[in-house]
Amino acid sequence: STPYTWSRGAYQCLCKRGYYSVRHPDGFNGTIMEIAWKEHQDNISNYYADVFTCLKCAPGCDACSGPEPCLADYNWPFRISLLTISIGCAIGTILLAGYLFHHRKVKVFKVASPIFLLITLIGCAIMYLEMVAIFPFLDTSWCIVTKWTRHMGFCITYTSLLMKTWRVSLTYRVKSAHKVKLTDQQLLQWMVPILLVMLIYLGTWTISDTPFAEFIHDQNGLKFRQCSYNWWDHSLAIGEVFFLAWGIRVCYNVRNAESLYNEARLISYAIYNIAIVNITMAIIHLFIFPEAGPDIKYTLGFVRTQLSTTTTIALVFGPKISRVFKGQGDKWDQKAKVRSITASFSLNGVGLVPEESPDLYQENEELKEQIQKLAHQIEFMKTVHMQINNRHLKPKPGGYFTITSTSFQAPFSKSNMSSTQTQTSKTEETLSGSASKG
C-alpha cells in the first residue's frame, strides 16, 4: 500500500509465498483490481479471473517467479536398470555362498578357509544392497541404511581378505625351522574386535547424530536430497584410509610369497583394487563432479560397487569355480608341488594333506640335509678352536688350515662332505699322536 494514502485502490496485492503470477510478477495494482472485480460481479468481463490469479510453484520450490522446476529430475528407467543389475549381483553372491558351503570339502576351497570365503561373500552382498538404499527419494531411514550397508559391507569384506593375507605375511617372514600356523579360530579372534569397533561406531552415530537427508543443488541449481555429511563421515573415512594403507603394506610384504593355488597374490590384487577404486571414486565425487545430479551420483555409486565388489569376487572366487567346473578342484596345483609349498604358506594353515607323501619325504630330506650341514660346521669350528689353543701343532698338507687348501668350504657343500670327514679324522690322529709323544 502507499503510505499516508487512504484513497480507494491505493494498494498493491502480492502472491503468497509458494505462488507466482505470470502477467504481474511484481504484484497487482489495487485500482485495476477493483475495476476488474466490479466487471466480474456484473458479468461484464472475465478479466479478473484470468489475470488476477496466483499459480502454485513447482514442487520443491519455496518461492518462485515462474513455472520453472526446482527439483532435479530422476531418470527412473535408467535407475531401475542399474538397481536390477545390483540386486541380481547380490542374489548371485548369496547363491555362490551356498555353492561354496556345499563344496566346502573340495581341496581348492578347503585350503582357502571356507569360513572366511563365506564371510567375504556376505560382505559383498551387503555392499551390493547399498544400491537399494540410495535408489528412492532419500529420507532419514534410507540414509541410515546407506551408511550401514556401505561401511559395514566394506569392513566385513576387506577384513576377511586382509586376515588371510596377514596370516601368510606372518608365516612367510618367520626365519626359524618351527613353522607358525594360525588357525581360522585364531584369526576370527582378531577379526571380531575389528567388526565390533565398526558396529559400535555406526550404532553410536545412528543414535547420537542420526543421518538425515538434506537438500543440495546440482550444477543447474536444481535441488535433490542427499544424505548429510559431517565429522562422523570424515572421521570414518580417515580410519578406512589408514586401514587400506595397512592392507597395502601387508600385501607388499607377501608379494614374493608362494601359496596354494596362487591365492595370496590374487587376494593382494583384490585388496589393491579395493583401495584404488575407493580412493579414485572419492576424488571424483569431491573434485570432478562436486555438483553432480542424482542420476550421475547413482551411476558413480554403481560403478564403484561393480569395480570393487564384482572385481573382488572375480579375483578371489573365479579361479576356484573354474577349477571345480573343470574337475580339478581336488587336485593340487602342480606349481605348488614343484616349489615345495608347505603348510606355512597355505591361507588356512592346512597346506598339503598327510597323504601327499612325496612332499613330506622331500621336506624330511631337506631337514636332514640342514642338520648334516650344521653338524659339519660344528666339527669344523671345534677343530679351529683346537688349533688356536695348541699353537705347537703344525697343519698337515691338504688339511683344514693349509693356505692353498679349499677345504674351508667343505662343511657347506655336499661334494666335500666326505673329504671333510677324512681330514677331520686325520687331524684327530695327529693330535692324539702328538699328545702321546708329549
Layout of helices and strands, plus pairs?
Blueprint: E1 12-13, E2 19-20, E3 28-29, H1 30-41, H2 47-51, E4 55-56, H3 76-102, H4 107-110, H5 114-128, H6 130-133, H7 140-172, H8 184-208, E5 213-217, E6 223-227, H9 231-253, H10 263-288, H11 294-325, H12 334-338, H13 357-389, H14 417-437
Antiparallel strand pairs: 1-3, 2-4, 5-6
Helix pairs in contact: 3-5, 3-11, 5-7, 5-11, 7-8, 7-9, 7-10, 9-10, 10-11, 13-14
Transmembrane segments: 80-101, 108-128, 148-166, 187-207, 236-254, 266-289
Biased composition (Low complexity): 413-425
Family: Belongs to the G-protein coupled receptor 3 family.
Strand % is under 5%
Q: Helix and strand succession?
A: EEEHHEHHHHHHEEHHHHHH
By DSSP, the count of extended strands is 6
Q: What's the tally of helices?
A: 14
- For the report, how would you describe the main beta sheet? 2 strands, antiparallel
Sum up the overall morphology in one term.
elongated
Low-confidence stretches: 336-358, 403-438
Report the span from N to C terminus: 137 Å
Provide the structure class. mainly alpha
Question: What do you see in this structure?
Answer:
The protein has 438 residues and is mainly α. 61% of the residues lie in helices and 4% in strands. It contains 14 helices and six strands. The chain has a two-stranded antiparallel ribbon. Strands 2-4 form a two-stranded antiparallel sheet. Helix 3 (76-102) runs parallel beside helix 11 (294-325) and helix 7 (140-172) runs parallel beside helix 9 (231-253). The longest helix has 33 residues, at 140-172. The protein starts with 11 loop residues before the first strand and ends with a helix. Residues 336-358 and 403-438 have low confidence and may be disordered.
